[in-house]
Amino acid sequence: MKKLVMYMKIFLLMIVIFLLVAILYIILKTLYSKNLEKNLKNKSWINSNVKLIKESSINKNIYVVEKNENINIYNMLYQKVISEKITSLPEYNSDIDNLLMIYNPYGTNNNAVNIYFKTNDYYKLDYKIKVNGYSDFTKTPNNGKDSEYSKNHSYQLIGFVMGKKNFLTLTLTSKDGDKKEYNYTLDFSRYSIDTPNKLKVTSTKDDEVTDGLFAILGDSREDNDYIHLVDNDGIVRSEIPIIGYRGLRLLFNNNNMYFNISEKRLVSVNRLGQVINKYYLGKYKLHHDYAFDEKEENLLILTSDTTKKSCEDSIIKLNLKTGKITDSFYLESVFKDVLEKAYYNEDEIPEQVESKGIDWMHINTINYLANDTVIISSRETSSIIKIKNIFTSPKIEYILGDETIWKNFKEKKYLYQKKGNFTISGSQHTVTYTKTDDESVYYLTMFNNNLGTSLTMPQMDFKSIGLKYSSPTDKGVSYYYKYKVDEKNKTFELVDSFKVPWSAYMSSSQEYKNNIIIDSASKCIFTERDSNGDTIRKYKFKCESSIYRVFKYDFVNYYFKSNT
Fold this sequence. Notes:
By secondary structure, the protein is mainly beta. It is built from six helices and 34 strands.
């Protein structure tokens, strides 16, 4: 009995000690976090914890950033400190024989080197990156000026292959056509990116591929928070870190690039890789898409209001100058009947309902037309919707969908007439507006997932309207769709369509320089196709389950001055 009592005392003592240690750990962690948070707001602390040092293993004359690991690259004080340290370096005002080279100074591009130098006369710069076993990468970098020629040169050169020895050639051309070449060896053997340097590529029509870089947005691999830029040969030319969630889209304005770095934050980054502005969304979480307004002074962002019991059903306006959210729109204001009737099958309630709320419309694309008028895509209703005056007096202009889906809702009166015999798009993504000379007639292109399902309308028989696939496990087929919309006659018709690899969810399509870019998300495959839908090149990306979107951009007036 005495032994039992003794063992009980020891056991209780151990519990007490464990609790005390746990409490002490929490206290110390809290104090550390508070101190760290305080430090991260202190410019002097950041300044003393950030250094630019030469890294001879790359090149004897190149600088790299050495910083405290707790400093996030998107910390605005950090960005300011880096800029100040660059301009204070002795080589900053040097000629090209002593040019300043810094590897990824702002941390926003893991395949980039910034260079700075001056010339006595006006020169244009071209550069070429050569790596054994890889195709050459030749570009004219953007100097931030209207003319290609300059005396003051500052550039971000992208396209270096990590883990390899890179041979860089800089070519200066005067206005008279005189050329000077400068050669450098940059050994990045010790540096790596988070994904293989080259994708698997299948090519059939090389001469028809367009200029530009593919932006891989939303890699599903765990802890792989990057946007990757890939050239036509499948070589990863840029890796842009983000904080979390996934990349959605890149937008460009005045030598700046705008993109989201998490569900709550977006940034604008200048041509040198410096973060110029960071935007916080407060109670809202972004999802799927955003777009400029007509003056490119505001962003319209698809959001979820975290204070509400529904999700993915609001749009906010973010002023890019002030960083303020100036307006908001909720779909329930024009789709009251749909929200009131939305419900889940008790046996199939998804976990996300508990954390995010009911996903009754699931808006996945936004197109801004003018005067606060938008065209959006609703996956949940397999419909495309136009709404005008969303921030003042919102009104539904039309719904492009099937009568069977909408027959029990009051909003069915807004349906346009389907012209011709075809199956409507099912759970479509990246619906994109293309105008014509007649503003009442235009085209809408999309990735038609061809999935017939709705979590909030489980009673709906999508097979009866031609959408026979209802599960991502189905061995189905998806499509590229192109609608012609006629607002005068209130009709829409299918004018182009071709089969693409099956993807039940996510995915994207993009008309780009007379070609079409298709991402079949769940297959981790994207293709560039000609206008007939024939594959020119196919790319296979290493991912766990999906790549959310792939868009192609030429990056002219951002990274590059021209397409050459």
